[in-house]
Amino acid sequence: MKFKKLVLTGAAGRLGSYLREPLSKMCDELLSTDIAEEIGTLYPGESYARADLAKFDEIHPLLEGADMVIHFGAIVDEKPFEELLGPNFIGSYNIWEAGYQHGVRRIVYASSIHAVGMHKKRDFIGTDAPHRPDTFYGLAKCFTEDLGSMYWDKRQMESVHLRILSAAQVNNARALGSWLSYDDLIHLVTRAIDTPSVGFTVIYGVSNNDRAPVDNAKAAFLGYRPKDNAEQFAEAVLADTPAADVTDPAEMLQGGPFAAVDLGQSGLAQMTIVDDRKKT
């Protein structure tokens, strides 16, 4: 099925860079947006509009005529609440409300494991696990999941919330369970778009890892069947990894380093994320 118009927020980000090309092939018009000045060479059918998620009057016109929004725009780290309020909280409201006013059918949202980051990894939580945010960043994900649920219940506007664990190169022991490859990310977003009916759905964004700490069984109807497995990196990663400290929240909880930092303090600063965004 080919759509008339899709909108991608966060198009200048690392994950957005891998989504632009496949999304452009799913529609006649892909409108990519971010706060960056530009995003490189555009794909056939793609246009770019600079806009601030926190400003409704900038977001509202972009969604006119859109079938769906793939909402990946946000500050992607823990920050003081006041810094996250505009892009991560108000920005989500602006997307949902503008989408509703324009008759958008569905929103596919980049949620995060940090919405449930204070759950223990050993509990192997499902998609119905109660919210336990590990940070203000995770709280914004909880807010947006609840926003999507409310707009479905009250206004029959569909949404799929992708609780991404870690879509980055596997260079630490946690990532052996949490890795989401870019190919599996594209497959996940595609299934969230082309499944005929989704209502309000939550699904974990994780590859087919032997050590995955979450259960997607209740979202199986989406047809997401990841192919990649982080176990291929295990020998090299574990050779350089000391024994786990079972008293360290970063080791034992779903949120990893985000579960251990103080509120408002960067979680990414405790990680080694390689910026390998796709170049155009």
Q: Rough shape? A: globular
**Helical region count?**
9
Portion in helices? 25-40%
The span between the termini is 26 Å
Strand order across the biggest sheet? 3-2-1-4-5-7-8
What's the average pLDDT? 96
- Kindly report the name of the CATH homologous superfamily: NAD(P)-binding Rossmann-like Domain
Q: How many domains?
A: 1
Largest sheet: 7 strands, parallel
Q: What is the H/E string?
A: EHEEHEHEEHEHHEEHHH
CATH topology assignment: Rossmann fold
What is the count of β-strands?
9
Domain NAD-dependent epimerase/dehydratase: 7-164
Keywords: NAD, Oxidoreductase
Protein name: NAD-dependent epimerase/dehydratase family protein
Family: Belongs to the NAD(P)-dependent epimerase/dehydratase family.
TL;DR?
With 280 residues, the protein is an alpha/beta fold. It is 31% helix and 17% strand.
Give the topology, please:
Blueprint: E1 3-9, H1 14-24, E2 27-34, E3 46-50, H2 56-59, E4 68-71, H3 81-101, E5 106-112, E6 125-126, H4 136-155, E7 158-164, H5 175-178, H6 182-194, E8 200-205, E9 214-215, H7 234-239, H8 249-252, H9 257-260
Parallel strand pairs: 1-2, 1-4, 2-3, 4-5, 5-7, 6-9, 7-8
Characterization of this structure:
It comes from Sulfitobacter porphyrae. This is NAD-dependent epimerase/dehydratase family protein. InterPro entries: Epimerase_deHydtase, NAD(P)-bd_dom_sf. Keywords: NAD, Oxidoreductase. It is built from 9 helices and 9 strands. With 280 residues, the chain is α/β, with parallel strands linked by helices. It has one domain (3-270): NAD(P)-binding Rossmann-like Domain (Rossmann fold), CATH 3.40.50. The strands form 2 sheets. It has a 7-stranded parallel β-sheet, with helices on both faces. It has a two-stranded parallel ribbon with strand order 6-9. Helix 1 links the parallel strand 1 and strand 2. The model has no long low-confidence stretch (mean pLDDT 96).
